[in-house]
Design brief:
Layout lengths: L1 H24 L6 H4 L3 H5 L8 H29 L5 H50 L15 H36 L3 H5 L6 H12 L3 H15 L4 H12 L3 H19 L2 H9 L5 H16 L5 H14 L9 H8 L1
Helix pairs in contact: 4-5, 6-9, 6-10, 8-9, 11-14, 13-14
Length: 337
Amino acid sequence: MFFVNLVKAIKTLLFGLSLIVAASAQAFDPDLAAIEDQTLINRFPKGSIATRETADQALKEVRAAKSKLKELSSYSQRRCQENFFVNNCLESVRKAELRQQRRLQSIESEARRIVREDETRKEAARQQKRDEKAAQPPKKIKKATPRKATEAQQQAKENLELHAKRMQSVKKREAEAMQKLGSELAKLAPDAFDRVTGLPEDIREAILEYRRMKSFGALRRQMQLIGKLMRRLDYDAVREAIDRATGASRAAAAAHQRAERLRDALLTDNAKLTEFVASHPDVDVQQLRTLIRLARKEKEAAKPPKYFRELYRFLHAAELPALTLEKADEDEESAEN
């Protein structure tokens, strides 16, 4: 009886081991090389960022790389849950993500240092011009003999003064409104702030610097700077950009629904492609055809919906064009006048 139980136990053990081996053979192997992509590190090695243009480009590419890293890590962590040895898989992904974050942080820190140094040089040059101008002797102005203004001239002068006061009030209200938008941008969650597209780099840097400050006085001065920089932006465009980032934009919600309906229609009806291209003549037709074909194959093979999502992003971009946050030239000239 003892030997019979022993044989049964050995068979059970061998069966369990065979299941573990089979599960290991079919386990998800995370693409650590993709997570630790060396492209950006090779492009911006330590000490290679020497100009403002290079620094701005590096910061832009670092933001894109961080977004891609987050997406790859999330995907790998979800797939790791399918493995028998879940913890080993998750730990490998976590360590790879941490190493890549440190590399990207190194590039970002170097680029931010170059930006700060450039801003310091520009401010020093501006201060030098102000000092030189202040050192110049005042010009002698010959006093003109005042003449008595006619009634019409006096009325015109009063009208101009009244108009100037009104315009000053309008500009003050606009400046206060833009500063409120700047305050709203500074209080956005980090992921929502990253989704605000089209924001000029100097304003983005000023807001990030505001978030790092602790002193009340420094925060107040930095917010005044942000408000001043924001004056060259269009209020409605910035408002829409914030709403898109926070999910409160009605236009973005409508574009989302249209993009989903278009995606489903294009995958089932070839005639819809002709209609879409006719109504969107600027789209890349070849790329659109490729995405439709790959999404269909993906669906037939029951694979993860990678191209299904890319097709949606392509259609969403066509339905919801990017925003231009800065004012047109004529608006800026009129604001200055």
